[in-house]
């Protein structure tokens, strides 16, 4: 009898379901978002308000259940450094002890040369001011007494948030459009990745379990930014923030080839394409940089694997930076990108670059 009871106990333990993964709670989230598409300095590039994807992300967050009075979205002329700083601290102090802060910035980013890591500055509407990511973290640590923080940024050198986070002890996650040393596209590609994450797009569900984790979203952003924009998205987690935190459940099923990055043939030429569906031996592809109305079903003979040209690690090359070519060495490669070291410059200037900015050393 004792053996039978022991056997039953073993069977019960062995058949227990795995523990549920932690899940992001929208109703306990506070969103501080800054989107600067215009500046008082006419020398800076601007973007149109029409079709701004940061506003689409805010709508996606509210649709997911973030209370409207938990959202502060500061845009354009309102986004002076003084106004942002005035609003930031008091907003943070409203959060409860079990709440999440979601910080988001879109606009221009620069390098912060006052730090040895050369992290990042976020450009405000009054572009002569300097809003450093260090001051962002310090303000959060002083005023936010919630459970965890998610930092998101779509700008040049935005990977500085990942670098800065390593200097702090908070429970934090970071997902950004570019490496700390690299510039970022003027397109909305990265923020669209965030919208897809919050909307539960099955494209991000790599393991097909119906849930999108932070790690899966970071992987998707890295793949997408490398493939579409030729730049390296940066991400990280700190202080016990779980990379497997579920950010959303999917709105559909992830098929085996969904998200595959390939080349497709159109009118006799081959272009980058991304698989968004499949049926009856064909794949539905979207063409990066083209409107969704051009999405097309392609038979097998009009598709081929994507194999970008890469230089091997250790290769001596020349890298283009702001219209000039510099001697560099390839340190490593990933997703068709090259992490290069500029000869005669600090390691903090090492960056990820695409093949279009590389050539064989003369």
Summarize the entry for a quick read:
The protein has helices at 2-14, 53-64, 81-92, 133-143, 160-165, 189-199, 214-229, and strands at residues 29-35, 71-75, 100-106, 109-110, 121-122, 131-132, 148-154, 172-176, 211-213, 234-238, 246-249, 261-266, 269-279, 282-286, 296-298, 303-305, 316-321, 324-334, 337-342, 351-353, 358-360. It has 362 residues and is an alpha+beta fold.
Walk me through this protein's architecture:
- The chain is an alpha+beta fold and 362 residues long.
- It folds into three domains: 224 residues, Rossmann fold, CATH 3.40.50.1460; 45 residues, SH3 type barrels; 45 residues, SH3 type barrels, CATH 2.30.30.
- It is built from seven helices and 21 strands.
- It has a six-stranded mixed β-sheet, with helices on both faces. It has a five-stranded antiparallel β-sheet with strand order 15-14-13-12-16, with no helix packed on it.
- Helix 2 packs parallel to helix 6, helix 3 runs parallel beside helix 4 and helix 6 packs antiparallel against helix 7.
- The protein is globular, with a radius of gyration of 22 Å.
Largest sheet: 6 strands, mixed
CATH fold descriptor of the largest domain = Rossmann fold
> Which range does the strand content fall in?
25-35%
Q: Outline the low-pLDDT stretches.
A: 9-15
Going by helix content, strand content and strand pairing, the class is: alpha+beta
| Portion in helices | 10-25%
SSE inventory with pairings:
Blueprint: H1 2-14, E1 29-35, H2 53-64, E2 71-75, H3 81-92, E3 100-106, E4 109-110, E5 121-122, E6 131-132, H4 133-143, E7 148-154, H5 160-165, E8 172-176, H6 189-199, E9 211-213, H7 214-229, E10 234-238, E11 246-249, E12 261-266, E13 269-279, E14 282-286, E15 296-298, E16 303-305, E17 316-321, E18 324-334, E19 337-342, E20 351-353, E21 358-360
Parallel strand pairs: 1-2, 1-3, 3-7, 7-8
Antiparallel strand pairs: 4-5, 5-6, 8-10, 9-11, 12-13, 12-16, 13-14, 14-15, 17-18, 17-21, 18-19, 19-20
